[in-house]
Amino acid sequence: MGDAPKRRLPVVGSGAAGAAPPRGGAASPEKRKLPVLQSSGDDEGEDRPPWHWIALGTVAIFIAWLPLAGLVNTLLRRMIERAGDAGAQGSVRLAMVGLNVIAFALAGVAGGYLVGRFGGRAGRREAAASGAVVAALAWALAFAEGAPAGALGWALLLVVVVTIGSAASYAGGSAGLRSRAAPGPPRSR
To answer: Reduced to 3 DSSP states, what percent helix, strand and coil does the chain have, rounded to the nearest 5?
Structure first.
């Protein structure tokens, strides 16, 4: 075992398939780098279709919105516990609606920015669509819980929520597109 000559594996791209490199040759096998590691970043491969970015933006908005909504509602619960009189209840309800709208809009801006910045061919339209999808899903969840609002109230709520979600995501998509076009800081080599 110890005296047997070592068998060398062929270098990819040299000679015939399965042929071993010449024995005793002075030429060393050529070094090859992995294509993934030597890419310059300009060729990022196949671009996703724009509709994929609607789904990715929707997920990003939910990921940003859920912790924000949890934080806002925790703060609001503490406000409700402190406010015991009936006069403060109206202001607490207004704060509840306003802060939840702000949390939703911030999440929409963040998800829209992601779509605009990294979306390839996707842009403002896909960002706005992802905000509208999240708003419609949130509306459907609220509708399924069966809160009393009447048909006109639910229709109006859908219009308002979709408008807020798509407008915030559109603004985030616009900011993302501007940051994509802006030259970045110089890279050090």
So the answer is: 65, 0, 35
Residue pLDDT, tens place only, 86-134: 556 677 778 888 999 999 999 999 999 999 999 888 889 999 999 999 9
CB 169 within 8 A of CB 131: yes
What number of residues does the chain have?
189
Structure tokens at 100: 């939840």
Choose among 137, 130, 138: nearest CA to 58. Answer: 130
Instruction: Output the six-digit token pair for 93.
Output: 């309800």
Cα dist from 8 to 11, 18, 25, 153, whole Å:
9, 11, 12, 77
How far apart (Å, rounded) are the C-alpha atoms in residues 176 and 117? 4
Burial class (CB in 10 A: 0-12, 13-18, 19+), 112: buried
